[in-house]
Amino acid sequence: MSDKNALIQPDRGQKAIAIHLVDKDGLEAFLKDRPPAQRAALSAHKFAADGYDFAIIPDGEDWAVVSGVANTADLSSWCMAKLAEKLPAGTYRRVGGEPGPAMFGWITGQYRFDRYLSEPDEEGPRILLTGEPKAIEAITAEAEAVMLVRDLVNTPAEDMGPAQLEAEAESLHKAFRSEIRVTRGDMLEREFPMVHAVGRAAARSHAPRMIELEWGDPKHPRIAIIGKGVCFDSGGLDIKPSSGMLLMKKDMGGAAHALALARLIMQEQLPVRLHLLVPAVENAVSGNSFRPGDILKSRAGISVEIGNTDAEGRLILADALARAGESEPELIIDFATLTGAARVAVGPDLPALFTREDATADALLSAGKAADDACWRLPLHDGYREYLKSDVADINNAGTGGFAGASTAALFLDKFVPKGIDWAHFDTFAWRPAAKPGRPKGGAALGLRAAWHMLSTRYGQTGG
């Protein structure tokens, strides 16, 4: 996006429509200062300064906007997002203050996924001015990362298979001069046997692969970012019902988060040595599908009994975690649309967070709260490891008993992370079932900003 067309632009005194933000505590004083015509317009609108409520009022020969917010002294990312969605195209300026964090929602509120529409919306942009030009680049980068997740998740599986995830990584490689390695075929079977087993039933055009990218100064702290890349999940031979497959294009949402976070890290030049890993597969059904009862060899040498072929995401992540651990990073973060149990526990808005270290959990929770990207920590309870016992292998991929499904899945992953490595796991939904201002229905980045702001703080950058 060129500066000319950027949705946030520096305020150089150009003509703009005024936006007044008002909270309930300040409404009475605001009304007293308004001329009669404006008070009459606000009364006709029954404006009460409720959140996201807005009204159009006369302003001389032009017009202005009055919008309710929770607290004018502490704006959220989303408090102006509805304005960005609903107001006519044009240029706008907040009166009496800066938009601050609301610039983020102003951008994401104008997101549209129109790739498959024969007549996409041609309405022009709503531009917001700011007197804080230094903040524009960082906020725009975050918004673009979130919208990248949305684009990748919203794209149907036929057009977003393992090859397309590889193409996204390739674009990062070219843009930021990284090192890239893609493992396929016989070599994949040897080096990442569980990735191969899960993906081998797919058509050749959606063949499985392990995508790795490394970037940054080797002298800097080494971190690994991993994303579950199941581009479509039929459930395998333990096949899902048709209703359970409707959203399975989003099962690569973890990979979308990892790719977007890697882009942020490289674009903002975070002083780390980054190792990005995306195991990319389609969990399909064919004559060579892996089966319930099979025992798979893993990269780590741990044998895994298959209790359920629909618990495939943890299998491919296990090989990726083992590979990441071999380089002894000081931190591993993985993102995965891993369990329905996490959604039962915390709903669609909150990614379930699992960490080994309390300090890492606290940092991620605090960063998420500050960035309007809240997370919720669930336990890695040792007592639940018994649910993963196998009589014939080192571990079973499907927990027994029906309890603590998100925790048992996380404990399965924990077994493949070498001891002593700081590790965080996001069990994220990557989808929004109903629209909210700045957050349309569809693909969603949940946990991305929390991770980015934590990393920015930990490694000495502000991250915006």
Automatic annotation (TrEMBL):
This is Leucyl aminopeptidase family protein. PANTHER family: LEUCINE AMINOPEPTIDASE-RELATED, PEPTIDASE B. InterPro entries: Leucine_aapep/pepB, Macro_dom-like, Peptidase_M17_C, Peptidase_M17_N_1. Belongs to the peptidase M17 family. Keywords: Aminopeptidase, Hydrolase, Manganese, Protease. GO terms for molecular function: aminopeptidase activity. The keyword ATP-binding does not apply. Pfam families: Peptidase_M17, Peptidase_M17_N_1.
